[in-house]
Specification:
single chain; alpha/beta; Nucleotidyltransferase, domain 5; Dna Ligase, domain 1; six-stranded mixed beta sheet; 12 helices; 17 strands
């Protein structure tokens, strides 16, 4: 039986996310998710390395306490800062036997990973788009043929070298190794199935974070490009903060719970009451919409302006995800303004039904896709500790210390 526990680290704006999941045969279970606030990373630049390391350590410690096993290494998600794509076709010939084997494919991928690129770029990963035999394309290497040659249609994806190395150093300083690296845009494409959906039409994923939004274009089953716009849900929250003199977290809750872009008329009954220096204040949905609606419309218009040349050439759709994607009516408003079909993607995986975790889940699938070309499989936790924890749990129907309680604890998301 195949059992593997994997951990993923994602760096978003002012937050570190760690997701731990177990693959057992064909089953996939999320064991633990940690969101830890972090002022050390703004989504593009490292502001304070020590704060990032501290947040990572806190996340790893929380997970170890819940799982009963320490994190040993992780899959790191790299932001698509300076992302670029290099396409090439490589002829592969047998090096280890008379016919092509997985070893030959692994050797070709290794050479591609070590290719020379610009000094400020780092190759994050290489994807094989197709295996070509006698001008016939296959999604997977044909297993029923004895081949004396094959052509690999490959894409090499690069990102900012300094940022990649700096984030990797933060993880290592937190006492954890790196198992693999995945580009955030590729992870999004895997989780949302945008890569497969783009075989017939363009797909643009709009990943809305606090102050930046990532736009990732997929076409013909490939990740084509990624770009950023300097707007996010934080702009909308800050509009509420400035108008009501509230804390960011409180304003964020008011945004999520009260914004409804489908409505033609907004409610005026009080939805929140607070006090400042013995003076009582209230606000309502109409007040909140007055604060944020124009900012949301400007956000949509900017995305439309950036993406209009793409949809002028081909039919396609927008897929909204990320922390800022759950506003009621946002997809409908975007479709109305842009005339482009728009939907919101929320993961369906139990324990991770949160669009802010789309990247983390997709990174797991991206890693699993390449396992066939690896010499060995690895786990991201101390397996001896984990197995000991499992064996130590005794089933006792009369006590509230059963395995069911332990499993329930895996799904609790602790926020700091």
């Amino acid at each position: 039986m195949e059992k593997q526990i994997l951990a993923v680290v994602s760096f978003s704006q002012y937050k570190v996310k760690v997701l731990v999941a177990q693959f057992f045969n064909t089953k996939f279970n999320v064991l633990k998710v940690e969101h830890v606030t972090c002022d050390g990373f703004d989504g593009e630049h490292i502001v304070n390395e020590k704060l990032i390391v501290s947040s990572l350590k806190k996340a790893f410690e929380h997970i170890a306490a819940n799982l009963g096993a320490t994190i040993t290494n992780v899959i790191m998600i790299v932001p698509s800062v300076g992302m670029d794509r290099y396409h090439e076709k490589v002829n592969v010939y047998p090096q280890f036997s008379s016919t092509i084997t997985n070893k030959d494919i692994m050797l070709a991928l290794k050479k591609a990973m070590n290719s020379q690129v610009r000094h400020d770029k780092e190759i994050i990963f290489v994807n094989v788009n197709a295996f070509i035999v006698n001008n016939t394309k296959y999604k997977k290497m044909p297993s029923n043929m004895d081949l004396d040659s094959i052509v690999l249609d490959m894409d090499q994806f690069v990102a900012d070298k300094q940022l990649t190395h700096s984030l990797a150093a933060c993880i290592e300083k937190a006492g954890v190794g790196i198992l693999d690296i995945v580009l955030d845009s590729w992870a999004l494409g895997k989780e949302t199935a945008a890569i497969d959906a783009s075989m017939k039409s363009s797909v643009i994923i709009v990943d809305i974070d606090r102050y930046k939004t990532l736009l990732s274009l997929y076409y013909h089953g490939r990740l084509i490009s990624s770009s950023w716009i300097d707007q996010g849900y934080g702009t909308w929250v800050n509009a509420i903060v400035q108008a009501h003199q509230l804390q960011f977290d409180v304003a964020h809750r008011l945004l999520v719970q009260n914004v409804d872009l489908d409505k033609a008329k907004y409610n005026t009954h009080p939805v929140f009451l607070w006090q400042v220096k013995e003076q009582t204040y209230t606000t309502n949905q109409a007040n909140i919409m007055e604060c944020v609606e124009s900012h949301i419309d400007k956000f949509i218009e900017e995305i439309h302006e950036v993406c209009q040349p793409i949809f002028a050439k081909s039919f396609g759709e927008f897929v909204l995800t990320g922390e800022g994607s759950l506003l009621e009516g946002l997809s409908e408003r975007m479709k109305k303004v842009t005339t482009i079909p728009t939907k919101v993607y929320v993961p369906e995986t139990m324990g991770a039904r949160d669009p802010s975790l789309s990247q983390c889940l997709g990174a797991l699938y991206a890693y699993k896709d390449h396992l066939i070309y690896r010499h060995h499989t690895a786990s991201c936790v101390n397996e001896v500790e984990f197995d000991t924890m499992i064996k130590s749990v005794k089933f006792n129907d009369t006590q509230d210390g059963t395995l069911s309680k332990k499993v329930k604890g895996f799904f609790d998301t602790k926020k700091d």
